Amino acid sequence: MLKQHLQFKLSQKLSPQQIQLMKLIQLPTQAFEQRLKQELEENPALEGGKEESDTIEDEFDDLYENELDSENISTEDINIDEYLSDDEIPDYRTKANNYSADDDEKSVPYAAGTSFNQYLLNQLNTVYLSDEEWAIAEFLVGSVDESGYIRRPLTDIMDDLAFTQNIYTDEKTIESVLKVVQSLDPPGVAARSLEECLIIQLKRKEINANIEMAITILEKSFEQFTKKHYKKLLQKHNITEEELKDAISEIEKLNPKPGGSYAGNNRIVEHVVPDFSIRIVDGELELTLNGRNAPELHVSKEYNNMLKGFKDSKEKSKSQKDTVMFIKQKLDAAKWFIDAIKQRQQTLFITMSAIMEYQKEYFLTGDERNLRPMILKDIADEIHMDVSTVSRVANSKYVDTPYGTKLIKDYFSESMKNEQGEDVSTKEIKKILETVIADEVKKKPLTDDKLAAILKEKGYPIARRTVAKYREQLGIPVARLRKQI
């Protein structure tokens, strides 16, 4: 049985313009420049640079109140005056007040040279190999990863050679060819494990007592070495602490990732472009937005002339009216984009200004212990914007400060109370923890329990598991792995 009923529903929807603005806000400077370039290519009604004409289009109000069938459009349906304006300075014109010629460099640099694998193949050309051995060696080189290792078992490589290269061989032959590949530069390349990589490098050096002992330790006591069980190493190899220290010193000079040191890798060299700059001028903080975020844009003069031509023509055909509709869409899109860029600039500047004021003491001193606890909501409440907007600004933007260029989100941190009941930033605690570990006696590094006790003495009562969490976030290993002779 059919029933009719009324239902009221409250929902919130973002307009296309709001979605466009949100997408622009989250773009860092370099990505924003690419987006701007794309829009200029796709929309002929949008142009960059200064406007040469004295007459600029403005006030792109809707051409139609309702959608009309194109067949029924009459001459009076289109009011060209709605598109034309004699304003010399439209309100949507954007202009940078801190743009310099130095910001014009937009190219992304590339590293020149051959690839790492090609570099190895070029060396193979100097080694005498049979056709089958060459094919195996070429396959092995192709299996070397960016770090310089061959991670796959020889049995798998043997199967792949049979199925893909039609080469039927055995592990012994592959092992023999692998030794040839491992003799190439850089030393340690094509190793199957860290242990083998380090041993290959040591054997390429001029042999002395220290290197011999280092090779022995890696071959017979690799696990104890990685876990820094120095007492077991002293007993097992019957050596003194000084001899062990010299052997370990030789190992520490080696490169655990031989492929990573090759300068010929053909990869993009990424550069961080700061979106903001903070400087201290006469004891006060000064914030500037990177000029590359504030391009000069205007509407195409040719589109203005097209509309004037349509207005002045006596006979208005259907094709001309279709053209006007196309022009209208492009003009609207240009206006929306220009307005979105202007709002993007304002949002970025307002958000970063609030962050700078909130962390004013830190930016004046550079001492991370002066960082106040700050979460996204603190800034959102300050500037009366949504938390998601602040998040878009903080997660992808960099700021150039007198203390280096840093990601904005790094200034956000949770808080905890010290013994005095004051809110302190977790970053402050991490900085103190880092300092305590740096000053510890390396022969007897501090355990997490001892670190927790020291922090408590300093007025930060936190649990051992919290100390462990902060230590891991700082990339600091456990006490046993920090031990030195």
Order of helices and strands: HHEHHHHHHHHHEEEHHHHHEEEEHHHH
- Specify the biggest β-sheet: 4 strands, mixed
Secondary-structure-based class equals alpha+beta
How far the N terminus sits from the C terminus, by CA atoms, comes to 87 Å
Mean pLDDT reading: 76
* Estimated helix fraction: 40-55%
Number of extended strands: 8
Structural Rg = 33 Å
Portion in beta strands: 5-15%
How many separate domains?
A: 3
Strands of the widest sheet, in order across it, are 3-2-5-6
Q: How many alpha or pi helices? A: 20
* Principal-axes shape call: flat
Unreliable sequence segments: 53-78, 80-112, 263-269
GO molecular function, one term: DNA-binding transcription activator activity
Protein name: RNA polymerase factor sigma-54
Keywords: DNA-binding, DNA-directed RNA polymerase, Nucleotidyltransferase, Sigma factor, Transcription, Transcription regulation, Transferase
Family: Belongs to the sigma-54 factor family.
